[in-house]
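Why does residue order matter? Because the sequence determines the fold. Keep that principle in mind as you read this record.
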Amino acid sequence: MRKILLAAGFGLALTTAWAADEVTDADPATTTSETVEQPTATPATSDIPDAPPIAEVTLVPVAAEPEPDSATLAALHQRLAPRKLELLRLAVKATEVKKNMFARLLTSSQNPIDAELLAEMRRFAERHPELPETAEAYLLMAQVHQRIGEYPAAAIDLLLLRAAYPGTPFEQEAIKRLQAMAGDELKKQADLLKSLGEKIGSLQGEREARTAGLLRLLGENPEKDWARPIAEACDSFLSANQGWLQEDQIEHVWARQAALLDAQSGIHHFDKLIALYPESPLHAHSLLAKATLQRKSMHAYPQAVASYNQLISKFPDSAETKQGYEALAAMYDEDMQDYPNAIKTNEAIVARYKDDQIVLRALRAMAAIQQNKTRQPAQAIESHLKLAELFKGDEGMEALLAAERLALFSTRDWAKAIDINLRIMALSPQHEEAVKAEYKNGEITEEKLGDKTAARALYAEFLTRHPDHSLSKNAQKRIEAIDKAGAAR
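Structure:
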């Protein structure tokens, strides 16, 4: 019986193929009931053989499956959204674990399902940001975060709710919960929550703009406990708003918060911003932040040097470059003990910024390196004198006094010491240090240069100018001693 069925099937297949052959070989014009005679012609001969037919059966193409209608799919998700939200609401309620105080101390407050519920609610918020009902998803997320003890994350959920869905009944509940946490679990951050709450009220624009504005405010956060939920909020915002034109600003917030958690992660996000948004106004800051992480967190000094130099070359006029210059000089000095490059970088600062306060710090740093590390007191004197030329007042006086001490006790350059004292006198003639400098010049001239005559003249001038000063008695005694020594000769 089996053989008979196989034979029958094989015969049926052949019959189908033959029928197809006849249809294929038939001229399309002869398929009607009338037969139209065609004139015969002698075919042209060719040495190239005809190509064999690829198939003897005409195949009907399979109809392509229609593309899913995006509008229909979106409408379907819209219809399902309330049902999903209801399921999430019921799931949060059903998984609430009530424990007494003793049980809370001995067991974890987190249910295994909590992470899954949070992920589902976050996906819901990302997929349906335009729905007013999504405000409840943020409220539910805050509820789960609170019950597992992640209070900063709960606060951020509630702040995002307020920024994105103002005027809804859920906003009032968010305000109430934020106030409760500010008085209890987040008491230390009460001022921050109050400030953010006030600023949320002034956020302008559509939902996306208000949310982005809040994230920028949160980007100033310096606390590690808040960094992860802020970074996750940035990730969620970019997923839900892929056409957002200022996404570099959100990437920057994300990078700053990631850096609080892990230096390499922060560098990765700053690198992403630098690569993807070369025209961003945050490019220079990202380079500076990257270099800072490489220096202070990773101690990767050669890489930090490269990042600082990239900042300096690409953005020479930026405020970040000024900070980068100073940080680079300090790194050469303090971290790498590369004193020649430290001095070179400080010299570049002096040449670039003229009389800015950064120049004051650079000259002081140079003088300290030259005096204490490279043992170059003569160069240190010149750095102090340069500072005194650029900065008058107390800074100039301090620099001149430091230079005078070096000239007296390190280089023993008496002429230089006298010159420096003259500068001190010129800077502030009535200053106590100027009076002392005038008297010291008499001493140096007498004791170090051995010129008694010139020294006597200087003492006499000092007496005339400062008759009531305590050093006048000393000057008088010096004059008398010089006169006595001269009479004895």
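Confidence is low (pLDDT under 50) at residues 1-60.
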